[in-house]
Amino acid sequence: MRCWGLLKKIINYFVLFLVGGLTYILIEIAYRGHSHPLMFVLGGLSLILVGLLDERKKPPFIVLQMIEGGIIITLLELITGLLFNQQYQIWDYRNIPLNFKGQICLPFSVVWCLLSFVAIKLDNKIRAI
Q1: What is each CA distance from 33 to 28, 67, 106, in whole angstroms?
Q2: CB 3.0-4.6 Å disulfide test: which of 25, 73, 82, 96 passes with 112?
Q3: How many structural domains does the chain have?
Q4: Nearest of 49, 65, 55 to residue 117 by alpha carbon
Q5: 100 has which bridge partners?
Q6: Are 127 and 14 in contact (CB under 8 A)?
Q7: In the chain, where does DSSP find H-type helix?
Q8: pLDDT tens track of the chain, all 129 residues?
Q9: Residue 102: left if φ>0, alpha if ψ -120 to 50, beta else—which one?
Protein backbone atom coordinates (compact mmCIF):
# COMPACT_ATOMS: atom_id res chain seq x y z
CA MET A 1 0.00 0.00 0.00
CA ARG A 2 2.82 2.41 0.88
CA CYS A 3 4.42 1.81 -2.51
CA TRP A 4 1.15 2.71 -4.28
CA GLY A 5 1.00 6.01 -2.35
CA LEU A 6 4.52 6.91 -3.45
CA LEU A 7 3.80 5.91 -7.05
CA LYS A 8 0.62 8.01 -7.04
CA LYS A 9 2.61 11.02 -5.76
CA ILE A 10 5.25 10.60 -8.45
CA ILE A 11 2.56 10.33 -11.14
CA ASN A 12 0.80 13.42 -9.77
CA TYR A 13 4.02 15.45 -9.86
CA PHE A 14 4.76 14.20 -13.37
CA VAL A 15 1.27 15.22 -14.55
CA LEU A 16 1.56 18.59 -12.80
CA PHE A 17 4.93 19.17 -14.48
CA LEU A 18 3.54 18.27 -17.92
CA VAL A 19 0.41 20.39 -17.52
CA GLY A 20 2.40 23.35 -16.17
CA GLY A 21 4.96 23.09 -18.95
CA LEU A 22 2.40 22.81 -21.73
CA THR A 23 0.30 25.62 -20.30
CA TYR A 24 3.28 27.98 -20.04
CA ILE A 25 4.30 27.20 -23.63
CA LEU A 26 0.74 27.73 -24.91
CA ILE A 27 0.42 31.06 -23.06
CA GLU A 28 3.68 32.25 -24.61
CA ILE A 29 2.67 31.14 -28.08
CA ALA A 30 -0.68 32.91 -27.71
CA TYR A 31 0.98 36.09 -26.39
CA ARG A 32 4.23 36.25 -28.42
CA GLY A 33 3.72 33.78 -31.23
CA HIS A 34 6.64 31.56 -30.13
CA SER A 35 8.26 29.99 -27.10
CA HIS A 36 11.43 28.20 -26.02
CA PRO A 37 11.88 24.65 -24.63
CA LEU A 38 13.22 26.06 -21.36
CA MET A 39 9.81 27.62 -20.77
CA PHE A 40 8.37 24.13 -20.55
CA VAL A 41 10.66 23.40 -17.60
CA LEU A 42 9.92 26.77 -16.00
CA GLY A 43 6.16 26.22 -16.37
CA GLY A 44 6.33 22.70 -14.94
CA LEU A 45 8.32 23.80 -11.89
CA SER A 46 6.04 26.79 -11.43
CA LEU A 47 2.87 24.69 -11.29
CA ILE A 48 4.41 22.22 -8.86
CA LEU A 49 5.71 24.89 -6.48
CA VAL A 50 2.64 27.14 -6.63
CA GLY A 51 0.39 24.12 -6.16
CA LEU A 52 2.22 23.24 -2.96
CA LEU A 53 1.10 26.54 -1.42
CA ASP A 54 -2.35 25.06 -0.83
CA GLU A 55 -1.00 21.83 0.64
CA ARG A 56 0.01 23.30 4.00
CA LYS A 57 -1.90 22.28 7.14
CA LYS A 58 -3.47 25.73 7.40
CA PRO A 59 -3.05 27.41 4.01
CA PRO A 60 -3.50 31.17 4.11
CA PHE A 61 -6.34 32.98 2.38
CA ILE A 62 -6.27 32.46 -1.40
CA VAL A 63 -5.23 36.07 -2.12
CA LEU A 64 -2.08 35.61 -0.03
CA GLN A 65 -1.38 32.33 -1.83
CA MET A 66 -1.75 34.16 -5.16
CA ILE A 67 0.81 36.76 -4.05
CA GLU A 68 3.15 34.00 -2.87
CA GLY A 69 2.65 32.23 -6.20
CA GLY A 70 3.49 35.38 -8.13
CA ILE A 71 6.66 35.78 -6.09
CA ILE A 72 7.65 32.15 -6.68
CA ILE A 73 7.14 32.37 -10.44
CA THR A 74 8.93 35.72 -10.62
CA LEU A 75 11.91 34.30 -8.70
CA LEU A 76 12.01 31.23 -10.94
CA GLU A 77 11.91 33.52 -13.97
CA LEU A 78 14.71 35.68 -12.54
CA ILE A 79 16.96 32.71 -11.78
CA THR A 80 16.26 31.16 -15.18
CA GLY A 81 16.83 34.48 -16.90
CA LEU A 82 20.12 35.22 -15.15
CA LEU A 83 21.40 31.72 -15.91
CA PHE A 84 20.11 31.13 -19.45
CA ASN A 85 18.82 34.41 -20.91
CA GLN A 86 21.82 36.71 -20.64
CA GLN A 87 21.62 37.61 -24.34
CA TYR A 88 17.81 38.04 -24.16
CA GLN A 89 17.35 35.26 -26.71
CA ILE A 90 14.45 33.69 -24.79
CA TRP A 91 12.56 36.76 -23.52
CA ASP A 92 13.25 40.44 -23.13
CA TYR A 93 11.48 42.70 -20.65
CA ARG A 94 13.87 45.64 -21.10
CA ASN A 95 11.17 47.73 -22.79
CA ILE A 96 8.55 47.01 -20.12
CA PRO A 97 8.29 49.45 -17.21
CA LEU A 98 9.58 48.45 -13.80
CA ASN A 99 11.86 45.68 -15.08
CA PHE A 100 14.99 44.29 -13.45
CA LYS A 101 17.81 43.62 -15.91
CA GLY A 102 15.20 42.82 -18.56
CA GLN A 103 14.60 39.43 -16.89
CA ILE A 104 11.57 40.20 -14.71
CA CYS A 105 9.11 43.05 -14.50
CA LEU A 106 6.31 44.15 -12.23
CA PRO A 107 3.49 43.93 -14.82
CA PHE A 108 4.24 40.25 -15.48
CA SER A 109 4.66 39.58 -11.76
CA VAL A 110 1.08 40.79 -11.33
CA VAL A 111 0.00 38.45 -14.14
CA TRP A 112 1.78 35.57 -12.36
CA CYS A 113 -0.15 36.41 -9.18
CA LEU A 114 -3.44 36.18 -11.07
CA LEU A 115 -2.45 32.96 -12.85
CA SER A 116 -1.47 31.48 -9.49
CA PHE A 117 -5.17 31.26 -8.63
CA VAL A 118 -5.70 29.00 -11.65
CA ALA A 119 -2.53 27.03 -10.81
CA ILE A 120 -3.66 26.37 -7.23
CA LYS A 121 -7.13 25.22 -8.33
CA LEU A 122 -5.69 23.09 -11.14
CA ASP A 123 -3.21 21.52 -8.73
CA ASN A 124 -6.08 20.60 -6.38
CA LYS A 125 -8.00 18.93 -9.22
CA ILE A 126 -4.98 16.94 -10.40
CA ARG A 127 -4.06 15.83 -6.87
CA ALA A 128 -7.64 14.67 -6.29
CA ILE A 129 -7.42 12.16 -9.17
Answers
A1: 7, 27, 22
A2: 73
A3: 1
A4: 65
A5: 104
A6: no
A7: 2-32, 37-52, 62-84, 106-128
A8: 578 888 989 999 999 999 999 999 999 999 999 999 999 999 999 999 999 999 899 989 999 999 999 999 999 999 999 999 999 999 999 999 999 999 999 999 999 999 999 999 999 999 888
A9: left
Give the type of residue at 21.
G
> For residues 77-105, b (16+ Cβ closer than 10 Å) or e, as one string?
bbebbeeebeeeebbebeeeeebeebbbb
CA angle 114, 49, 52 (to 5 degrees): 90
DSSP 61: P
- Residues 69 and 73: their CA atoms lie apart, in Å, by 6
Q: Measured between alpha carbons, how far is 91 from 109 in angstroms, rounded to an integer?
A: 14
